[in-house]
């Protein structure tokens, strides 16, 4: 019987021979089989020598996909079973694949032990089959082999050797990255392993999250409330500055107002640049690319710092440039002094805004509240001390000094929060990739700048033209604009929350959940707009008396606020719809819409109604309100009915670019070891 079995096995094709059938092995087995030393081998096919800017390189954990398991598989759509099956059927049928799995996963697994058994089994079977084929077939086909067959086998061996080397390099690299959280699982009879690895810090699984309207509304509310408080507290800084300096004299108050307008317009540019992170960071986080979140942050900060250089030069020589606009030399001199000190405060403010987006992408929205609850009271104390204190007070110049100190304190506290509380899990260390791919970043940053600056400048233009109607009209318009800026923070915060959720789901390739987030965001814009409208109308007399004691100014404010309240409904829709477009990565469309409607329709219409039809402030606000209505309705439609296929394709293109960066970083990480120990082609062949 033994002789017959031996003869039968000897007559089998070498590729069908095995070096064991599991006897004496107490490990569980699933189907894994022989991996042929040919290009039809799914591993060799999938892990060919990587291209310089390719994006098909995967982590060693994705080997589970090729071995028939679902270890670390986040989405069943990512499986390559169909591709492998088609390839194998062309070769004569599905391969029988077996591999030994440990019966349980250790609570503290080593990174190498997770896949060493895969690599060892794969190398053993590959080597055995290759040697068997050479030993049994070589004698028969030595003289009948085509001339190019040796070259083909040599190329296959090189491909396989390169693949195994890169996998082992990935093993070494992943030791320095976040360790997976283990789980005790059993292997199913069908040869698959449930998803046993989850990120330690990835609290939400966007790829499997069940989203309904009620649950999404709760999440949006939990995100929005901290942001609303954060933005309202931020608005206290210029208000405190004006109130502190206002009692020094009318020239000082006018200088602070002019300086605040200049800084607001300038910092809005960097606020617009940081809105690119509303798209990039949440999409990277939703797709599981945590390291990419930190790289996007560094790139945006570096880009902003370079853009800030010409603005800093303008602020330093502002006395010369403002002299062409303002004729009063004393006012220009005081404004220039303020701006020169403010140069030191802009960098921490820019970094602070980017760090907020970095945390928001991870679902951390309350960090800003904790920081500002400390800094806002200190800002009041510092401003009063440096301006009015008899011993250390320095008068007018103390206001910008207090502002700079508080900006640096805000940045320091937020960094401490990230380091010691939450948020550092997506920080992969400083990376020189932050100084690359700025063109791709600018494609998102420039539309974001246009979207914010278009609306901010429209308010400034309205204020400028209202000065031609008289001092009372200018005072009333200034008070109304300041109030609208405060109320605008509510829909702006809700919009950022919505864009974060939408971008998370787009990154996770969940268009169904992204649709629901869009619907909830747009519906919330109507409630927020109605809330602002009711507040402005019901509190119009109180608001007017806060800003002025002049009867004419109070009457103008009281009469104008009902119209402004109605406009705020469309302004809320405009703010939240624009943010949702950023979450979808479509801010370029929003930038064009804002630019065209505001400056080709709304502002000309307001000037026409205000001057030609003598409607004054009412004409200006009817014009700007009409523009907000058109922008809000257009952007709202685009948010609710986008081409989700294109949205996902653009997100996938950004993800592929990030993967290409990851590959380049890996190449550089291992360059020193690889260059020194690079084996020659002959040594690879001998080794195999």
UniProtKB/TrEMBL annotation:
<feature type="transmembrane region" description="Helical">
    <location>
        <begin position="588"/>
        <end position="612"/>
    </location>
</feature>
<feature type="compositionally biased region" description="Acidic residues">
    <location>
        <begin position="77"/>
        <end position="91"/>
    </location>
</feature>
<feature type="transmembrane region" description="Helical">
    <location>
        <begin position="367"/>
        <end position="388"/>
    </location>
</feature>
<comment type="similarity">
    <text>Belongs to the multi antimicrobial extrusion (MATE) (TC 2.A.66.1) family.</text>
</comment>
<feature type="transmembrane region" description="Helical">
    <location>
        <begin position="520"/>
        <end position="543"/>
    </location>
</feature>
<dbReference type="GO" id="GO:1990961">
    <property type="term" value="P:xenobiotic detoxification by transmembrane export across the plasma membrane"/>
</dbReference>
<feature type="region of interest" description="Disordered">
    <location>
        <begin position="49"/>
        <end position="107"/>
    </location>
</feature>
<feature type="transmembrane region" description="Helical">
    <location>
        <begin position="618"/>
        <end position="640"/>
    </location>
</feature>
<feature type="region of interest" description="Disordered">
    <location>
        <begin position="126"/>
        <end position="155"/>
    </location>
</feature>
<protein>
    <submittedName>
        <fullName>LAME_0G18536g1_1</fullName>
    </submittedName>
</protein>
<feature type="region of interest" description="Disordered">
    <location>
        <begin position="657"/>
        <end position="688"/>
    </location>
</feature>
<dbReference type="InterPro" id="IPR045069">
    <property type="entry name" value="MATE_euk"/>
</dbReference>
<keyword id="KW-0472">Membrane</keyword>
<dbReference type="GO" id="GO:0016020">
    <property type="term" value="C:membrane"/>
</dbReference>
<keyword id="KW-0812">Transmembrane</keyword>
<feature type="transmembrane region" description="Helical">
    <location>
        <begin position="394"/>
        <end position="420"/>
    </location>
</feature>
<keyword id="KW-1133">Transmembrane helix</keyword>
<feature type="transmembrane region" description="Helical">
    <location>
        <begin position="338"/>
        <end position="355"/>
    </location>
</feature>
<feature type="transmembrane region" description="Helical">
    <location>
        <begin position="300"/>
        <end position="318"/>
    </location>
</feature>
<feature type="compositionally biased region" description="Acidic residues">
    <location>
        <begin position="658"/>
        <end position="680"/>
    </location>
</feature>
<dbReference type="InterPro" id="IPR002528">
    <property type="entry name" value="MATE_fam"/>
</dbReference>
<dbReference type="GO" id="GO:0042910">
    <property type="term" value="F:xenobiotic transmembrane transporter activity"/>
</dbReference>
<dbReference type="Pfam" id="PF01554">
    <property type="entry name" value="MatE"/>
</dbReference>
<feature type="compositionally biased region" description="Polar residues">
    <location>
        <begin position="97"/>
        <end position="106"/>
    </location>
</feature>
<dbReference type="GO" id="GO:0015297">
    <property type="term" value="F:antiporter activity"/>
</dbReference>
């Amino acid at each position: 019987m033994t002789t017959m079995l031996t003869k039968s096995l000897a007559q089998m094709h070498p590729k069908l021979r095995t070096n064991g059938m599991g006897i004496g092995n107490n490990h569980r087995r699933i189907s894994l089989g022989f991996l042929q030393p040919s290009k039809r081998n799914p591993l060799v096919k999938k892990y060919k020598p990587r291209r310089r800017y390719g994006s098909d390189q995967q982590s060693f954990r994705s080997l589970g996909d090729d071995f028939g398991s679902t270890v670390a598989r986040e989405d069943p759509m990512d499986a390559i079973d169909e591709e492998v099956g088609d390839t194998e059927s062309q070769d004569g049928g599905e391969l029988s694949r077996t591999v030994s799995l440990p019966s349980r996963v250790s609570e503290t697994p080593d990174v190498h032990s997770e896949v060493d058994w895969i690599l060892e089994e794969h190398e053993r079977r590959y080597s055995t089959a290759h040697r068997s084929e050479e030993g049994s077939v070589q004698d028969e086909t030595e003289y009948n082999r085509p001339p190019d067959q040796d070259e083909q086998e040599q190329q296959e061996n090189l491909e396989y050797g390169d693949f195994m080397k890169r996998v082992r390099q990935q093993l070494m690299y992943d030791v320095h990255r976040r360790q997976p959280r283990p789980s005790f699982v059993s292997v199913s009879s069908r040869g698959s392993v449930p998803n046993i690895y989850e990120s330690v810090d990835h609290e939400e699984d966007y790829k499997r999250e069940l989203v309904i309207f009620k649950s999404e509304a709760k999440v949006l509310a939990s995100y929005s409330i901290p942001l609303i408080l954060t933005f309202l507290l931020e608005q206290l800084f210029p208000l405190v500055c004006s109130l502190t300096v206002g009692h020094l004299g009318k020239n000082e108050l006018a200088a602070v107002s002019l300086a605040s307008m200049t800084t607001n317009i300038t910092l809005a540019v960097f606020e617009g640049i940081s809105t690119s992170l509303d798209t990039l960071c949440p999409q990277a986080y939703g797709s599981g690319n945590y390291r990419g979140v930190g790289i996007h942050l560094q790139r945006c900060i570096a880009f902003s710092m370079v853009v800030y250089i010409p603005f800093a030069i303008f602020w330093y020589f502002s006395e010369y440039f403002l002299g062409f606009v303002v004729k009063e030399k004393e006012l220009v001199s005081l404004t220039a002094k303020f701006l020169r000190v403010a140069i030191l405060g802009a960098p921490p403010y820019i970094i602070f805004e980017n760090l907020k987006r970095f945390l928001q992408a991870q679902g951390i929205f309350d960090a800003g509240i904790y920081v500002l609850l400390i800094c806002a009271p200190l800002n009041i104390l510092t401003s009063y001390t440096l301006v009015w204190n008899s011993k250390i007070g320095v008068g007018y110049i103390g206001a910008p000094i207090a502002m700079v100190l508080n900006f640096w304190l805000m940045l320091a506290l937020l960094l401490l929060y990230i380091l010691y509380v939450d948020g550092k899990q997506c920080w992969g260390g400083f990376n020189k990739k932050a100084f690359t791919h700025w063109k791709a970043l600018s494609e998102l940053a420039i539309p974001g700048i246009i979207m914010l600056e278009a609306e901010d400048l429209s308010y400034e233009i309205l204020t400028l033209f209202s000065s031609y109607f008289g001092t009372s009209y200018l005072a009333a318009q200034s008070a109304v604009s300041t109030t609208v800026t405060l109320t605008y923070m509510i829909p702006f915060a809700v919009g950022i929350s919505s864009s974060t959720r939408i971008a998370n789901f787009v990154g996770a390739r969940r268009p169904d959940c992204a649709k629901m987030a869009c619907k909830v965001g747009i519906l919330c814009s109507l409630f927020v707009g109605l809330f602002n409208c009711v507040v402005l109308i019901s509190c119009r007399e109180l608001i007017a008396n806060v800003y002025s004691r002049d009867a004419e100014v109070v009457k103008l404010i009281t009469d104008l606020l009902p119209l402004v309240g109605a406009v705020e409904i469309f302004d809320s829709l405009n703010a939240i719809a624009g943010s949702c477009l950023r979450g979808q990565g479509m801010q370029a469309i929003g930038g064009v819409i804002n630019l065209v409607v505001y400056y080709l329709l709304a502002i000309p219409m307001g000037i026409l109604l205000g001057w030609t039809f003598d409607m004054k402030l009412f004409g200006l606000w009817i014009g700007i309100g009409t523009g907000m209505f058109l922008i809000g309705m257009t952007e709202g439609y685009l948010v609710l009915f986008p081409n989700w296929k294109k949205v996902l394709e653009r997100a996938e293109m950004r993800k592929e670019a990030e993967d290409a960066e990851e590959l380049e970083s890996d190449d550089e990480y291992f360059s020193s070891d690889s260059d020194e120990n690079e084996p020659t082609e002959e040594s690879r062949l001998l080794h195999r």
